[in-house]
Amino acid sequence: MASSPNIVLFPFMSKGHNIPIIHLARLLLHHHATVTMFATVANRHFFSDSLADTGASIVDLPFPENINGLPAGVESTDNLPSMSLFVPFANATKLMQPDFEQALEILPNVTCLIFDGFLDWTLESTSKFGILRLAFYGWSYYSMCVSQDVGMNRLLSGPESDDEPLTVPSFPWIKLTRNDFDEPFNVREPKGPYIDFVMEQAIATAKSYCIIMNSFYELESQFIDYWNNKCEPKARSIGPLYLAEPSRNKQHHHQKPTWLQWLDQKLAQESSVIYVSFGSQVEISPKQLREIATGLEESKVSFLWVVRKGGSELADGFENRVKERGIVVEEWVDQRAILGHECVKGFLSHCAWNSVMESVCAKVPILAWPMMAEQHLNARMVVEEIKVGLRVETSNWSVRGFVKWQGWEKMVRELMQGEMGEKVRKKVGEFGEAARKAMEEGGSSRYTLNQFIDELQALRGNSSKLCC
Ligand code: UDP
Questions:
Q1: How many CA atoms are closer than 13 Å to the CA of 10, on its beta-carbon side?
Q2: Residue 310: is its pLDDT beyond 80?
Q3: Helix (H, G, I), strand (E, B), or coil: what is residue 343?
Q4: Using 50, 70 and 90 to split pLDDT, how confident is the model at 186?
Q5: What is the pLDDT of residues 113-157, one digit of tens each?
Q6: Which domain of life does this protein belong to (predicted)?
Q7: CA-proximal residue: ligand 1, atom 16 (nearest)
Q8: Containing H/E element for 347?
């Protein structure tokens, strides 16, 4: 019998990219693979804490220092003062190549490297050492297929208005606008450092053995089939990776954080709570934050709001006025424990992919308010395609418009108490069940993973033949 595969994982330095890779490590370890994770020095503890009970090894790499324009000591995008520094940050990782290669050289018998799509420069290293490489992407097939189709057909160079509906040629039931795309993809002739970064990613991905996706067949089968029939390299859906992680409620047993105690209280009072969180890195203007606060206050719905930046901008007395039914938290929370809490019946989310998958797994419907990256596409998928959520109403009906407090109030109530909310709650329950089944023995993701591990075992020793 072939020995177990020795898999090296290299995540990009941001929480939304670290967390699914940690889950992936766990999943591979369950399947008897040996796992080595690369982490920068400041991020190491995040991995070692999460994987302490496993046999994963962690290899430290120094993050480049003295990079023009980047503050010293920042090794994760959530600590950047502004996301406008994203491209310089991502480009700085290229300077890790010599240390990465030195470390890779002494790792014994590597079967393959699974690299985060943002670390495209690892292509050169794996080619040098003849190591099989696989790209990991933590986004949906929906956004991957739709973006590709829109790009190939140069759809965004057509419309006069940013809000004019456009039909996606390969998926004609999907209507998008230019505003569903971030700068610089939303201009007629996209160019500049961001576009160069994306092109480098596309090349490294095209030269990889396959793509690993954190999704599952039953969630977006049409898009999965489209990708695997029409595009290269083929993608493997082995998610939701979130379900590879054991429930961590027990860890909170002795000393529950305040917000968890607060949720327990709400459960005892038979209140339903909406969880409000916009991930680890988005920036929200003080004006918009205040409208969210008023909307939540006026909705009379109980809420747990994680404000990562700008909490001090909330109106004076807000927390005091809502204290009977709302709590504002400024620390890092255990989103799994919140979404899994029995009293949490809705999630006001920015629709980054991890949050969407986690909400589906927890069977909690979403109120979508996308802001950046591919979040607008995910929001369309959530609301229009798989119908597990509703969308907040902007004041000018543009998908990027400002949302006044009335828009928040109305849709928070609708999600938590309305008929439309009930409909999407039922639907997310069905997908949540399908997600669980996909990961169980006999399920689609489990089947794909088993096949994938067998394939890696068969390839062991032959990887150099498969490197492009
Ligand atoms: N998260 C968390 N606690 C927080 C904020 C975020 O556990 O206080 C986790 C969340 O569960 C998810 C990840 O961080 O796994 C954020 O990824 P996502 O793709 O949702 O958003 P991003 O931060 O990348 O915008």
A1: 26
A2: no
A3: coil
A4: confident
A5: 999 999 999 999 999 999 999 999 999 999 999 999 999 999 998
A6: Eukaryota
A7: 16
A8: strand 344-349
Residue 465's pLDDT band, with cuts at 50, 70 and 90, is: very low
Q: Is the dihedral of CA 62, 85, 50, 439 positive or negative?
A: negative
Note the Cα 26 to chain centre separation in Å.
17
Cα separation, 84 vs 337, whole angstroms: 31
* Residue 337, CA distances (Å) to 59, 343, 365 in order: 29, 11, 16
pLDDT of residue 2: 59
User: How many whole angstroms from 305 Cα to the centroid of ligand 1?
Assistant: 14
pLDDT averaged over the chain?
93
Which H or E run contains 237?
strand 235-237
Chain length of the chain: 468
Burial class (CB in 10 A: 0-12, 13-18, 19+), 32: exposed
Residues 375, 377, 378, CA angle at the centre, nearest 5°? 60
In this predicted structure, the answer to whether residue 189 has a pLDDT above a threshold of 90 is: no
338 CA distance to ligand 1 middle (Å): 12
- For residue 347, is it left (φ>0), alpha (ψ between -120 and 50) or beta? beta
Q: d(Cα 209, Cα 364) in Å, to the nearest integer?
A: 35
222 sits in which H/E element = helix 221-230
pLDDT at site 253:
58
- Span 385-413, pLDDT tens digits: 999 999 999 999 999 999 999 999 999 99
Strand partners for 167: 175
Does 247 score more than 80 pLDDT?
no
Residue 368: closest CA among 431, 414, 337: 414
Rounded distance from Cα 332 to ligand 1 centre (Å): 9
Q: Of the given ranges (178-187, 359-368, 376-385), which has the lowest mean pLDDT?
A: 178-187
Q: For position 265, what pLDDT does the model report?
A: 97
How far apart CA 430 and CA 452 sit, in angstroms, is: 27
**Is residue 328 within 8 Å of 319, Cβ to Cβ?**
yes
Span from the CA of 19 to the centroid of ligand 1 (angstroms): 8
List domains and CATH numbers for the chain.
Answer: 6-245+438-465 (3.40.50.2000), 253-433 (3.40.50.2000)
For ligand 1, what atom is nearest to the CA of residue 332? Answer: 8
Taking the C-alpha atoms of residue 303 and residue 275, their distance in angstroms, rounded to an integer, is 6
